[in-house]
Write a structure and sequence with these properties.
Helix content: 40-55%
Radius of gyration: 33 Å
Structural class: alpha/beta
Largest sheet: 5 strands, mixed
Shape: flat
Amino acid sequence: MLRYFIYCRKSTEAEDRQVLSLESQINELKRLSERLNLSVIDILIESRSAKSPGRPHFNEMLKRISQKKADGIICWKLDRLARNPIDGGQISWMLQKGIIKHIQTFDRAYFPEDNVLLMNVEFGMANQFILDLGKNVKRGLKTKAEKGWLPTLAPLGYLNEKTREKGKKEILKDPERFSLIKRMWDMMLTGNYTPPKIAYIANNDWGYKTRQGKPLVKSTIYRLFSNPFYSGWFEYPKGSGNWLKGSHEPMITQKEYDKVQILLGKNGKPRLKKHEFAFTGLIRCGECGATVTAEEKNQIICSKCKYKFSLNNRYECPKCATPIEIMKKPTILNYVYYHCTKKIMPDCSQGYIEVNELEKQIDFYLSNIHISEGFKNWAINNLKEENEKEAYSRESIFASQRKAYDNCLKKLDNLFQLKISPANTDGSLLSDEEYGKQKIGFLREKTRLEEIINDKSGGIEKWLQKGERTFNFALNARYWFENGTLLEKFKILKALGSNLILKDKKLHIDLKIPFTAIGTVVKEVPTARYGFEPEKSDQNEAKQNDLYSNIPIVLRAMKKVRTWIIRNADAYDVPDLEKPTEDALPIPF
């Protein structure tokens, strides 16, 4: 009689959320072994993920089987044994060689003489699940961060919300500690307390305790006063240089945060804050091809003698010797310059360009694609009308695809019936190898058709949405580039074009095809930029619809925009720029 290990595994990670508990697995597998009369010599339990090799009980089990102390494995499903190609390959190899003589799961058995294709497919699916799960988790964290919510543990004074569903949890004020942390910042801003002194007062006078019930230590208080999260910003991922504006309630202002960094001296002197630079990582030097970076020049105006001087690690006014830490509300001036990193060619001759001049050049590109609201409305209606004209042909194609999908399901059903039916007239049954081969082919075809059918409405909605965003971008980008946040400026420049080259203080941008087409219309058809004379609105609309619908250059441009967006809908990304409020001042042309 063969001897078996019962192997049970459940990870604490999201991958095993729908899997039976360890206790339930043990009970079910014991009943299974009794029903099949399988001799169990040991039960191995593991509470670890199988996405990477290195599980101790799993390795011990294979070692004992190799030493012929057991012959087979009983487990709930194959993915309990492995979710990575190394462990999966080891199991498959030992089964093929007869070292493992039998693997029994709750729904089927695996033997050395079986075709290995199905086992490899199941292990491959388990591995692919882990890969997809990792991508989905990262995508979810990134989406949460882009919405302004730090996707990690909230710092002192804040709490991670626990009531909402995963991915929608916000960061709230800690009702017990928020006001105490705020008092610590207020004390630091006076310049009369050091961080260790503040920690001492909090621990001994206020009785402060962290969420873990511990007092503040020196390293924690310095990290607290160096964390920009309290001013409303955070970096995600850590060390990426990608700074995001938080949706949480800030505890202090940006100016107050900067002042504390000055007061901290060498332990927290003002650093180059990457979130202050909107265009780093997008532009390359036109001479040597290196990336263009930004640099901040800081100056301070002495609150006592009004002398202006550069910080440069100074801690007192060079004219009146007043220490910075005791100045009352010193004025801090910031200047930002963009320049080549010179990492490819150290003797690159390209100089600096001030950020205001760079933004003027970007605004020039935006002005060349700026359209009137009337033209934007006509263009979006035109996209919808063209889509409706093609609806009939798409429905015919969809009906054909649906028919092919139904036929594929019918073939799968017939194949299964053939597998379980009595012997054919020639006395032979469909072999496992032939069954597996045909089944895989049909399943792949079924999956392909499902993706096409499911994407039918989604694909149309996606390109129409991005087409609408394109014309909203052309209408509103100049306003938001002038008045928006640094992140919005970054997104606008990134969406505008590619191959951004800075040479001799001149920025060159290869506009994306939709904006090139819009720029052509703006240049050749003045009303597309300025609109019509202020007449009655209904007459204006009728006039513009009749005009634009009969201008060949406009129609060619619209076709070019629509075709390009349809072909590039998945990769094309353009920010959704809303119309500015009525009281916003228009930007002159």
